[in-house]
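Final report, closing paragraph on structural work. Over the funding period we assembled a curated collection of sequence-structure pairs, and we close with a single example.
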Amino acid sequence: MSLDKEWDSIRPDRSFRAADAGMGILRITLLFGSAAVALALIAVPMLDSHTRSQSNRDAFAGGLDTTSTGSIGSRTIYTLRRSVLQPSASSVCVIHADGRRSGDC
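Its predicted structure, as stored:
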């Protein structure tokens, strides 16, 4: 028995099949696709926190309006309105729950 015949009995098919190449390309695509998804899941939160801390640092340079809202423990309900259309910048209109208006309305 020659060596070629022994090898053929162990591994008879030496031909190239397109289906095998297709599966290899599919495996490589899945490998790189899953690596891209993993990188996106890790990189996006890190870049987002870096961008937020940078924008918070820039906010104190005068780029953002730092108006705050809140409430106090009072039983009366009213709405304060300020408008750029009023003659004075400090004009305030107070609208009470019953519809009464006071101030610069």
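The chain has a mean pLDDT of 76. The radius of gyration is 36 Å. We thank the funder for supporting this effort.
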